[in-house]
Amino acid sequence: MKKATLQEIASSLGVSRTTVWKVFSGQEGVSGNLREKILAKARELDYKFPEELDRNTVPEKKDVNIAVAVCRPETSIFWMNIIHQIAKEFSFHDVNLVYTYLPSVIEEDYTLPSQLLGGSIHGIIVMNVYNERLIRLLSRADTPKVFLDTATAIDPSSLNGDLLLMESGVSTARITEHLIKQGRKTFGFIGDINYAKSNYERYEGFTKTLERFGLALSKECMLTGSIGAFTYKEEIDAFLDTLPAMPEAFVCVSDYVACILMQLLLKRGFRIPEDVAVSGFDGNMESPLAEELTTVQVFNKDIGNRLASQILYRIQHPDSQFETTYISSQVIFRASTGD
User: Fold this and answer.
1) Residue ranges per domain, the chain?
2) Does the keyword Transcription regulation apply (predicted)?
């Protein structure tokens, strides 16, 4: 006889697989009455219970383990600061953080780490993951999930989890408007807009502001395609060589990109901001050039706290509608745009 599955139990009762999984893993968030119905249906279908689960009793509360699944956290202290805040918040709730490193590029036969699928993980926070295939693998996991940003091509409704984003479009629009009101007429944009939803929203804020002020979008001044993770400097340098004329301002998707651009412009003899204004995003102070860079401050502490609270909420309310939440950012004008 084919053994019963979580999905069969869930379907027979009209509940989600996550709800059934919570009962079998001893988690909170399921009423006593529904818990008993699920256990009774499992016995009826001869479901093979985990050895530690007594068929005739409601399981005792167990430790809560939440994975932080992240790609390339070493690329920036930005990610480590958020992870640190998540860990700090979890400590107040007696929750165990399970650090899970994911590759940024995967093969066709790649499977998720066993610790994410073995039943000991009760929730997953996904950070700095932009590979579409990897995101889709994660979205199919039954475990409650919260994503920090996602790939541009991924429809948030397909994530099977909550999505947290930093506000991007309005902040970039404000910087662009500021540059226009200074009298600058020609603009460039640098950043892979197909990489991350937040990158695309920054580009959208930029282009809509140019359109609102009746300024043309010069496609030859846009470097918006894929950029190699380890070849930013070389590719931006080559892009600058192709320009018929240097724009009066560049809006960049990140401080990392902006600081590389500033370095290359200075090397070519351009003055910043007299000849070319430059702006970034993130409030990342890892480069000395960032001290003069107009940017958008992203509040890592608030993001970490919100990720932690949202995954705890999702575990307790697995059947609630998924949410897309924006955390406010703050524009900081500095010398690189003429202030």
Assistant:
1) 1-62, 64-167+300-329, 169-297+332-337
2) yes
User: pLDDT at position 3, please?
Assistant: 67
Query: In the chain, what is the straight-line distance between the N-terminal and C-terminal CA atoms, in Å?
Result: 74
Angle between helices 197-212 and 169-181 (to 10 degrees): 30
Query: In a 3-state reduction of DSSP, which class is residue 38?
Result: helix
Q: Are strands 330-332 and 295-297 parallel, antiparallel or unpaired?
A: antiparallel
Which fold would CATH assign to domain 1-62?
A: 434 Repressor (Amino-terminal Domain) (1.10.260)
DSSP letter for 320, please: S
Residue 162: per-residue pLDDT: 98
CA distance 140 to 80: 26
pTM comes to 0.81
Give the CB-side neighbour count of residue 35, counting CA atoms within 13 A: 17
Fold equal for 1-62 and 64-167+300-329: no
Q: Which residues of 206-219 are buried (b: 16+ CB within 10 A; e: fewer)?
A: bbebbeeeebeebe
What letter represents residue 146's amino acid?
V
CA distance 220 to 289: 26
CB 147 within 8 A of CB 155: no
- Total number of residues shown for the chain: 339
Which CATH code is given to the segment(s) 64-167+300-329?
3.40.50.2300
pLDDT, tens digit (0-9, with 9 covering 90-100), for 165-208: 999 999 999 999 999 999 999 999 999 999 999 999 999 999 99
